[in-house]
User: What shape does this take?
Amino acid sequence: MGVTVPYESTGRLNQKARTRQALIAAARELLAQGVVPTMEGAAAAAAISRTTAYRYFPSLRELIVAAYPHVEQQSLLGPNPPKDPIARLEIVAENHIARILKNEAQMRAVLRLSLEGVRPPELPMHRGLRIAWIEDALAPLRGELADSQLQRLTHAIGATLGIEAFVWLTDIAKVPREEAAAILHSNALGLLRAALADQDTPANPSQPRDA
Assistant: This one.
């Protein structure tokens, strides 16, 4: 059996690369407008045929993943991550906040769709990626905090470290975007530091630890 050569790897490579990027850009623009991307819609926006679009991306999911590679990331920590949960969360926070600043329009659109009750399976952004990344950051605390405490902390950080909080800060509180990003970062790390401090505090502060 012969090896299948990807369509984009043969002939007119520069033109095919431009067509691929046009499809990706079209998907991003549709989502930024609050429109759930479809292959047909992306093809039309890129001024190519639906058949041609499928030569580049056999499914809509593959197009979405190309437009937003992070939806396939199980971890944001990279190779050889630190063991300290604060250092791990800092990596996740910085990575996710940078993504908010880069893809703000698209994230706002996904949030708007969610508020309207639209959660299409074509948008893998709805899979709770943020929670999974935070759980990964806090993994060293498993066994040190009760499961219920760890879950509560994960959800608290997730509520703080996201597009929802960013929108409130920029639109309601009128905070500049970069300052809003700094607030998200400090709040997320502050929640973790507070939880760790509580863990180290005796149940009865009036009594010494070895009483």
Notes: The radius of gyration is 22 Å. Residues 177-200 form the longest helix (24 residues).
